[in-house]
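Q: Could you fold this chain for me?
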Amino acid sequence: MNSFFGLLSAGVLVLLLSSCGGGGNNSSGPTVSSYNVTTLANVGGSITPNTVIVEEGGTTTLTLTPDSGYTVSEAIGCSGSLSGLVYTTAPISADCTVSVTFELLTVNIVDTWLVEGDSGTANLNVTVALSGPSTAEITLDYATIGEVPGNGIDDDSDGQTDEPIQEGEAEPTTDYVPTNGSLAITAGSSQGIFTVSVLGDLVAESDEEILIEISNVSSNATLGTATGRAVILNNETLSNINDTGITACYDETNTIGTCPQVGHEGQDGDYGRDVNVNNDIDGHAGFSFVKLDSNGQPLSIQDASWAPDGNEAAGTQWSCVLDRNTGITWEIKADDGGVRDKNWTYILTFDADPIFAGETLDTATSGAECGGHVSDCSVKGYVNTVNALGLCGYNDWIAPGEGDLVTLANLSIAAPGPTVDKRFFPNMLSASYWFGGYPNAAMDFFAYDFSNGIDRNADPYDPMVLYGQYYPDNNWELLPIRLKRRTIQTALRFNDNNDGTVTDSHTGLMWKQCTVGFATTTTFCDTATGDPTLMSWQTALATAESSNFAGYNDWRLPNHHELASLFKVGVFNIDPIGHLFTAFPYYYLSSSTVAGESNLVWVMRNSVNRSRKADKITSLTTTMEPTRVLLVRN
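A: Sure. Below is the predicted structure, expressed as structure tokens.
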């Protein structure tokens, strides 16, 4: 009996020790879960390994192997990321699948451009891009395509020899060196580059295109885009005037499509650089800009976007922009709190222009804000500061003059803007910017509004209303300013052709001397005979198109920028010295419709060079605000 109870006691003791974790070495930690990472790939390659078992919280890597002639298009799943041909998952917490899509590896030529020099040669780098990295070397042939005049050879393989060079077409041996060769793109690379030599000259001409073709791609890739454009940007001033950027056609109330439109001829979108040199590479439609570095030289990379932390080597920051049409170099605003920050405002004084040297206004209590970089926050002080810095290697910076700012306005952009190409003018505000140092007798100062395209008048003394905007008594207008380099223009700008027409040597435009409706003699407008004709917008377009005045049959209604190029603030005459034009303070009608407000058209008052909007039908045929018509031709 005692033996039985002794055995029972010993068994209970063993059980108690076991329940407490003692009595042996058979204990185990918490269970770790494992999950399956599976893979899925389409035709064109493989992914290895096919399946991986991964402990919870762990990661794994997978190797992608495209077949010859293929590349990786996409790899997704398990919250991972792709680097080269290796896919790494995120920490695993459940079963998941990595899916890989392979696609044909294509070879594509990329459009490019280069600013032409004045002499010598410049290397135009042409990029051939793969749709993805290749696992083996890829080879191809390339060649420029262009007819060499006079050699009796069908150079461009179109069945014709010695074809004449067309406008906008680069001429082999004159504009560039004809080039052909072979290119090898090494394994692991996604692009290759070859070079075409461009020949510089001093000829003011349109931009010119070189067509380049790639062919005979090796069997481990597929030919994609075979023909590309290389644009040679002329670096000489082209016309001293920009087009407006408008390419659409309108009726009295609506947009009806891209010009031309039958029955609606003669509009802004039918004429000008926006039609003839519509190349968005260097600016919207007919605009043509070049980004410049801190030394005033063109960036080697022109098509990159501005980045706050960018740099000139990558093409992601620049200091100035050259407008190739007008020849004006503009400063670029920053967003860094420095001297040229976009948000600083200034007070305009007489001293902004040498014409008014010594005539200053009190700026001590102006309230302008310029970050402490200019002592009095005056335009004069800012000009001096920028010149002392030698922006872009120059010290001839000045406030923009009358008519300069409007040349930047892209009127195809609707309010609230800003009405500029921000690819070239980053950090641009939808605001009014000072121009000038050109106060009139009433001490009005002027600015151009890039939110809606109106020339604004800021009167520091008298309360006034201008298109619904109030300027209270003694409330100085504080605005930003964008400086330009000084440019030289011919003094004798207008030439009387003695046939009722006047040629503007600055823009190359020919104008009908008299407002439509006035009689014209060979030397002046007979304002005693006839009367300026009131007409709707559509009637004015048709009148211009049908005119054969002075033997020319290509008259048209001027666009907004062309009208702006004529008028001077505070002067009734367009040309006050020669008295060549009708000397009456009228609004003049343009061919330019207001973006976003298709029932309105831009008009300009010649006595104050002031833009405004007018209804295309009603307001143009009333005597309250008479709107007149001038005709122009190229």
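A (continued): The chain has five helices and 39 strands.
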